[in-house]
Amino acid sequence: MLPLHIFTEGGLSQGLGHLTRCLAYAHAWRELGRNVCWWVDGDKYASNLLLEESVTWGKWQEQCTAPNINAFGLVDSYSASSFVLDIIVKSHSKVIFLDDTFRIQYPKGYVVHATECDDVPEVVKGDSTWLIGKEWQALRPAFWRNFPAKNISFYVKNIFIMIGGTDHLNLTEKVCNELKAAHPSSMLHIVSNKKLHLENARFYNSLTDYEICDLMMMCDFSITSASQCIFELAKVGMPGIILATAQNQDQQLQVWSENGSFLSAGCWYETAANEKLRECINNISSFDVRQYMSTISRMEMSGVSKPKALELLC
After folding, report:
1. Residue 5 forms beta bridges with which residues?
2. 57 vs 150: CA distance, rounded Å
3. Is the Cβ–Cβ distance between 188 and 201 less than 8 Å?
4. How far apart are CA 244 and CA 266, in angstroms?
5. Residue 139 carries which DSSP code?
6. What does the alpha-carbon distance between residue 261 and residue 295 come to, in Å, rounded to a whole number?
7. What's the pLDDT tens digit per position in 74-110?
8. Comparing C-alpha atoms, which of 167, 168, 189 is closest to residue 179?
9. E strands, 48-200, in order
10. How far apart (Å, rounded) are the C-alpha atoms in residues 218 and 213?
11. Residue 72's closest CA among 138, 125, 7, 137?
């Protein structure tokens, strides 16, 4: 069977969401006994995440240097030009594009847009086949199984925090300050490459998907960016607060808060951001609210497991 070529980007400024999402595809493809090669525009943070992967580093978005061999392609990028995407399509048997924002009209291939929407805007439909909805989301191996109902504690003892692996906006400290005011005795479990001097706080980095999963299962609620981690949090039934730290997260923020799975603290740059966050923390402290949110989120992710789009390549 053909190898999978992954083209993506990530690091301090872009975050690590693209890389984490693509790792789910890489694990699933290798599970089938097939090879995976990467082309990545990234920095040391990206390198640390992909230590066990076969990676060609560089700005492939400007000039694709992938060999013209018989292979499948996977592209997850906000910066690749249509010209380069055309080259990738012409040099691969089939190509999957991962999209969050209806960014461009993609060349012929499959486009995965995992956030629910009514329809694809006409301006970007093009010749591609669009795959819409969370059933197309790629989860990492730790989240492929079915989880039992989460045990919701009446008291909040442990809180999960992940404002992006790199948190280039330095929002983690602000979030922690609000949590300390509301839950001074709770332990904060912070996934970040930056370590702060805080009491009752534990910091984690370079966690595997299984370690992240265990941490999510242990905590009582979460505060995270409205990024790819939403799908994993929902799969384990973790009640949480989400905030948009980038424009590409706006649609996920809206959809997941409207269906009742998460509370929305809005966008980080809004003038009332602190007040919204404070209100959300107050609401999610209720046992009944957390119980309801956990039930809804698990229902929303029922049946979502391995990267479904890979079936289209087999």
Report:
1. 37, 73
2. 40
3. yes
4. 6
5. P
6. 8
7. 999 999 999 999 999 999 999 999 999 999 999 999 9
8. 189
9. 55-57, 72-76, 95-98, 110-113, 129-132, 158-162, 187-191
10. 9
11. 7
pLDDT digits (tens, 9 = 90+) for 197-223: 889 999 998 899 999 999 999 999 999
State both tokens at 156: 């909040």
Q: Which amino acid does the sequence have at 52?
A: E
pTM of the predicted structure, to 2 decimals:
0.93
Residue among 290, 299, 15 at smallest CA distance from 158: 290
Task: State the DSSP H helix or E strand holding residue 48, giving kind and residue range, or none if neither.
Answer: helix 44-49
* Nearest-angstrom CA–CA distance, 12 and 164: 10
Encoding tokens for residue 52?
């066990």
Asked whether 21 and 27 are in contact (CB, 8 A), the reply is: no
CA distances 281 to 40, 204, 247, 288, Å, are 37, 22, 23, 14
Give pairs for 258-267: CB < 8 Å, separation 24+.
Answer: 259/296, 259/300, 260/292, 260/293, 260/296, 261/230, 261/234, 261/293, 261/296, 261/297, 261/300, 262/230, 262/233, 262/234, 262/293, 262/297, 263/293, 264/226, 265/223, 265/241, 267/243
